[in-house]
Fold each of these.
Amino acid sequence: MCAVFALLAMAAGDSLAHGVAEDDKAYFEQTTGVQLLPFIYLGAKHMVTGYDHLLFLVGVIFFLYRLKDVGAYVTLFALGHSVTLLSGVLSGTHINPYLVDTIIGFSVVYKALDNMGALERVLGFQPNTKAAVLVFGLFHGFGLATKLQELTLSQDGLVPNILAFNVGVEIGQMLALSSILIAMGYWRRSAAFQRQAFGANGMLMVAGFVLMGYQLTGYATA
C-alpha cells in the first residue's frame, strides 16, 4: 500500500496539472447533440486518472473501517463536487483555476494533518470532519468545472451531456474507491499498518504541498 502512496505522490510531482487529455479535448469540442455514453465514459476516465481527487479520498477513508462511515463521507464529497461541477459549467460561474487547484492541494494537506492528529493538537479541538469533506468537495467540483470551462462546448445537448459527465465522475469515483478500499483492507490487516500510517500520511501531506506550490507558481506567473 505504501507503494500506492509513492506512485500517487510521484504523479502529483510529475504530472502536476491534472486536466483533460488532448484527444478528449478534441472530442468535447467537436461533438454536438446529446452524447450520453461517451460523456459518462469521459467523466469516469477523468476521475479515475484524477490523482488530486484520489489523494484526498485516500485521506478521507484512511481511518474509516465501517462501510457505513465510508458511504457517509463519500456521499458528502460526491454531493459537494456534483453541485459545483454542474452549477459551475451550466451557469458559467468562473473561478481562477490556479486558485481552485491550490485549495484542492490544500485539501490533501488538511486531511493528512487531520489523520496525523495535528489539527486537534494545534487548534485545541477537533474540526468537524464531515463538514470539511463537504466543503472541500465543493472546491473539487469547481476544479472539474474549470477544466471543462477551458473548452468550447456546444450548447446543443450541453445540459444532458454535462449531467452524463457527472454520472461518469461518480462511477469513476466508485471504481477507484473500490480498488483503494481493497488495498487498504489488506494493508490494515498487516502488522506494519500502525507503524506505517503516520509516514503514509506524511507522504500525502508532501504531495498536497507539491500540488499547492505548482498551482501558486502558475498563478503568480500567468
Note: DSSP finds ten helices and no strands in the chain.
Amino acid sequence: MNHPDVSVLTTDPTTDNADSTDSADNADSADNAGTAAGSGDSGSGPADRSHPAYQGPSIPKDHHRDVNGGWLRPAVFGVTDGLVSNFSLIAGMAGGGAAHKTIVLTGLAGLVAGACSMAAGEFISVASQTEVTQAEIEMERLELARRPAAEMKELAEFLTQRGLDPDLALEAARQIHRDPDQALIVHVQEELGVDPTDLPSPVVAAVSSFGSFAIGAVLPLLPYLLGMSSLWVAMLLAFGGLFACGAIVSRVSSRSWWFSGLRQLLFGAAAAVVTFGLGALIGGHVG
C-alpha cells in the first residue's frame, strides 16, 4: 500500500516485470553478501543456533502489558464518567432542594441511561474503527497479490529507514515475502501502525464500558438507596472512588499514584461544584 508520506517506488503493469528482474538481481547480490557475512547459505536455510546471539537466557514474550486489548480505556473512562456524571447529577438535584425520592429516581435514571449510552457509543466507535482498519488491511492484501515486486521493494525501503543496509534490507524483505500471511502482517504494521492479528473488540469495549460506568455511578447513589439524605456521604464516596480510580490507573502507567488520583479527584470536584451551584441557583425558581 502506497501512502503519500512514505517514499515508495511506484510501478505500473509495464514495469512490474522489470521490478521483478531487479529484485531478483538484488536478492542474488544480498545472498552473496549474506554468505560473506557468515550466514552460510545466504540466509535461506535454518538459522545457525550456535551463534552467540542465540545463547543465554531469552526474554519472555509476555513481559509487556497488554495495551491493545480494548478494555483499559473504556473501563477507566466508564468508571470516571459514572462517578463524575452521576454525582454531579445528584449534587445538582440536592442543590435545588429536590426530595429524597426524586434524587433516587434521578440517580437511577442517570445510571441506566449513562451505562447504555457509554456501551453503545464504545461499541459503535470501536466497530467503525475496526471496520476501517480491516478495509485497509484487505486493500494491502490485494496490493501484495497484484504487485509483489513493488511491495517487496517498499518493505525494503522501510527496513532501510530503520537502519538496515540496502542489500540486507532487500534480502530480509525477500524472506518475509516467502510467507504471504507474514508479509501482510509486517506491511500492515509498518504502514498502518496496527497489528492485524490483535484488533480491539467492540464487544469487549462495550461490556467494559457498561460495567465500569454502572460501578462508578452507583457509588454516589448508594447512600440515598440506603435511606440517607446527606450529600456529604455521597460526596465522600464519589471523591474517594475518583481518587482510588486514578491511583489504580497509575499502576499501569508511568504516573505516581497520588498525581493520578488527585487529577481524577479535581476534575470530578469541579463538575460537582458547578452542577450544585446551578441547582441551588435555579432550583428555587422552578416549579
Note: Confidence is low (pLDDT under 50) at residues 2-45.
Amino acid sequence: MHAAHHTPTAALASRRTSRSSRAPGDTPARSRGGDSSGAAPASLDQAPPAVGKVHLVGAGPGDPELLTLRAARLIANAKAVVYDHLVGDAIVDLIPPTARRVYAGKEAGNHALPQHAINQLLVDLAREGLDVVRLKGGDPFIFGRGGEEMQAVQAAGIRCEIVPGITAAAGAASCTGIPLTHREHAQTLVFATGHLKDGTVDLDWPALARPRQTLVIYMGLGALEAICTQLIAHGLPATTPAAVIHAATTPAQCGVHSTLADLPNDVRERGIRAPALIMVGEVISIDPGMLLTQTLATTA
C-alpha cells in the first residue's frame, strides 16, 4: 500500500503563520480610545457599533483545497476567527494576520474552552460589531456542536449563517478509495459518535450492527475495543472488514485495514492515534490499496 500525501500549494505556503500561542480567549490589544496622556475618551453619546453576525463555517477534513468557495472567502475576509483543534494547519494559515483569532480546540481530556464559554464568546464578539467566523473541522452540523452554538447565538438575537463543509467520512472515503455506499455491499450509511456527552459509549448497538450497511464512527478511537466487542456481540461477524483512518486528506494521513476482531490490536501495533475515524462494513474489502498503513513514527 502506498502513502498519499497532500502538499499545500506555494500560494498557501507563502501565507503560512503559526497557530496562536496566546492563552485561550486572549486576543490582540485593541484601541479603546484616548491615550496614556489622559486624553478624553470618545463621546459618551457616540453610537455603539452595529451587532455583527456569526458564521458557523465547515473547514472540511483538513486539505485546504477541499474548502468551499464560501468558506474560503469568509476566512480571507475575517475580522475574528474562533477555530477548533480539528481545523487543518494549512487552513489556519489562511486566517489573515490582522484577524483576532481564538483557539477553542477540544482534545480528549483537554478543552481549551468549555462549550458554554465558546457559546458566550461568539455572542460577545458579535456584540462588539464583529462578523465572526466560527471555524469547525468537517461540517458544523455533523458531530460539530454546530446546533448548540446556533441556538445560543440566535437566543441572543444575533444572526447566524451555516456554511457546510465536507465531513470527515466523505474525506476519508475519497482519499482511501473506500466507497461509503455500494449497490452490492451497503445500501445504508450510518454515522455515529463514539464519545457521548456523559462519557459513555452506550450506543444503539442492534441498529449499528445490521448487515449490508456502512458504519462510520467519529471520535471513537479511545473506545475502539468496546465498540468492536459490542458490534460482534450484537451480530456482526468477527471477520467483518473494518478500518481506522487518521487525519484523512492531510499529510499526516495513515490508517489500518483489518477485521472487527483484530482491529484494536492492529491499531495499537501501528500506533494510530486520534483524530481518527472507524469504518466498518463490507465496503472496506473494496480497498484499492490507497489506505495507508504507516506507523506512529511516520505521524509523530
Note: The radius of gyration is 22 Å.
